[in-house]
Amino acid sequence: MSDPIIRVGIAGQGYSGFLIHAHWLREVPERFQIVAAADELPERRAEAKKNFGCRTYRDYREMLAAGGFDLFINSLPTHLHPRGTVDALNAGFHVVCEKPLAVKVKDFDAMVAASKKARRVFAPFQNARFFPYFQKIQEVIATGIFGKIINVRISWSKFGRRWDWQTKQKYWGGNLNDTAPHPLDHAVMLMGAKAPKVFSVLTNESGSFGDADDFSSVVLTEKGKPYTEVFVSHYEAFQKGNYTNVNGEFGGLTGGPAGVQWKWYDPKKAPKQRLHAGWSHNREFPNEELPWQEGFWTHPDTGLDAFNEMSKPFYENIYDVLRGKGKTLVTHAQVRTQIAILEACHSQNKLPILF
Amino acid sequence: MSDKVYRVGIAGQGRSGFDIHAAWLRKAAAQYKIVAVADNLSERREQAAKELGCRTYVDYHELIADKELDLFVNALPSNLHPKGTIEALKGGHNVVCEKPLATKVKDFDAVVAQAKKSKRLFAPFQNSRFALHFRKIQEILASGKLGRLVHARISFSGFARRWDWQTKQELWGGNLNNTGPHPMDHAIVLFGEKPPKVFCRMKSEIGSLGDADDFCAVTLYGKLDQPVVEVLVSSYQAFPQGDSYNINCTLGGITGGVAGLKWKYYDPAKAPAQKLAAGWSDKRGYCREDLPWVEESWTPESTDLFGVTSRAFYNNIHDVLSGRGGLVVKPAEVRRQIAAIEECHRQNKLPSLAKKQAAL
């Protein structure tokens, strides 16, 4: 028996729906076929029709009512992520939903509940989980060479003004909702925490023309877990280090999409030291040569662009899951922890609503 | 007019007393003369007698009793900073005191009160305030070209194990007390005059053989119009994350450290005019524009941090002792720093050495 083709309806043909989801799915016609698309902009509907030869709808609810597909991809504007997902699950479709999945735990829980009730797959599109460098980072840490992890800092920052819809609170815009779901997902994974305490500062400065945050600094702590920072600022004039920085008892790593480097030492091969009883020896700082070892990984040429590199493993997993083989790699519990963090950040930082 | 030469006594001949204070003061012979030192280690007294040609005492109380001093330098172990300073002030001396000045505001206030009561000078040795790179950062920010400060991150971090007295809580060791007063002083000055709120996490991990913190992350923050200023002093930083100073403003930023600075900024009047978009993304693109960046850089005339800062600090002290101006490092600023440090400790009660060793 040949493998089935999953019929897909994509809600939203914006940056995500067109440039990320459709962009990959057209590459794998033997597995996925885009049969429907919804967007309120006529030029986007015309483009979808022309490119995919699919049916088009102005409103995603018309697409749900018409049916004729298996998988609903929710790449609607952010504030429609929970609502559109619940609508689609209630209508009997499997759902892949863009991030942020929700900004309140109760909304996320309602999505999970709808999925259980309808017995349909609800798959959060946390695509950055599949960044090759992030996979590598997890692999290196899992070897245990660093010992216990002391701290993690993840920064997705740059200098840039913004004036698009993602700067408006009413559409759930802002750095925290729009960008941070990626580094926060990494943070939750690296920290291994289920319910971390959250300290955050969000501000809305002059570079954002809307009213949502364009500076977000988040610290996650939990007893026995690494001190974990997620930083998404639009005022980083000079980049401070690489995307991800992890430090442990016996070494650490730094890395980003282009590559990862790490260093560590074996404590058994390090000089033996004892707590010194008196004052500084010869007025010197303690000094020793640690037997450092180093490793590095460079992003290989996969022949795929950055989005497709992540979409490929994500949709391979979804394809398997929809055929009853295996489970979603991105779990609801992991994403729920992330949503709880987003919610805590917002409750700690009430920004004035201007639009 | 020739300058008066002030007679100095230095309490403590360790890394600070000998390698920093004596190292500078013996060079500044036109302004200062080291006439006495105190240290409980005989080899340090012998070295001082030989190299500095001064009187030596075992106990700093004997140095306080020395009536021939114009200035008492407190470079004693950290836990004796407030106590030794108060005793020296009571003994009628002007005092320069090493950092940390105190770990509790009430101790710092007691020092300031004693200075007033004794009508003597109390000068906190926050020498890094005089660091050329920090002065340049202040100058760039004061120019207004970069707009308003949004965020600063100062990291004095590296990867190193420690097993000396500075790893012991009982001697007020640890990254926050020992290294922290430098970046914390800068952070407090950058934050502004309103007292900050403090969020801090400290750890004492396997690389510190004592029980004091070897990982300390501090965030100073406040209302929406106040900056976020972070200080990281970690002994587990395997790879540096950019420069030690990273300053971000609404219209640009600065990066650098002791070896030099780079900064960039744009004039908003010359930037493309943008309006908040009414609809969805234009052609599915992110906002794109070319900002008219102006980039500048600066290299200091000297990277001898201790030489530069000690000279500037002691020039200021000489001026103050001679009645020519006030202290550059204001006790009120240092008080805000001590308040922040105290709050950090309050938020992080670290276990004793026995408990730590049991947990490891």
Question: Could you characterize the architecture of this molecule?
Answer:
The complex is a heterodimer of chains A (355) and B (360). Chain A has 355 residues and is of the alpha/beta class. Chain A is 32% helix and 23% strand. Chain A contains ten helices and 14 strands. Chain A has helices at 15-25, 42-52, 60-66, 81-90, 105-118, 132-142, 175-178, 181-191, 306-322, 332-348; strands at residues 6-11, 32-38, 55-57, 71-74, 94-97, 122-124, 149-155, 197-203, 215-221, 227-233, 244-248, 251-256, 259-265, 292-298. Chain A has an eight-stranded mixed sheet, covered by helices on one side. In chain A, strands 3-2-1-4-5-6 form a six-stranded parallel sheet, with helices on both faces. In chain A, α4 links the parallel β4 (71-74) and β5 (94-97). In chain A, α4 runs parallel beside α5, α5 runs antiparallel to α10 (332-348) and α8 (181-191) crosses α10. The longest helix of chain A has 17 residues, at 306-322. The termini of chain A are far apart. The model of chain A has no long low-confidence stretch (mean pLDDT 97). Chain B is of the alpha/beta class and 360 residues long. Helices cover 32% and strands 22% of the residues of chain B. Chain B has eleven helices and 14 strands. Chain B has an eight-stranded mixed sheet with strand order 8-9-10-7-11-12-13-14, covered by helices on one side. A six-stranded parallel sheet of chain B has the order 3-2-1-4-5-6, sandwiched between helices. In chain B, α2 (42-52) links the parallel β2 (32-38) and β3. In chain B, α8 packs across α10. Chain B starts with 5 loop residues before the first strand and ends with a helix. The model of chain B has no long low-confidence stretch (mean pLDDT 96).
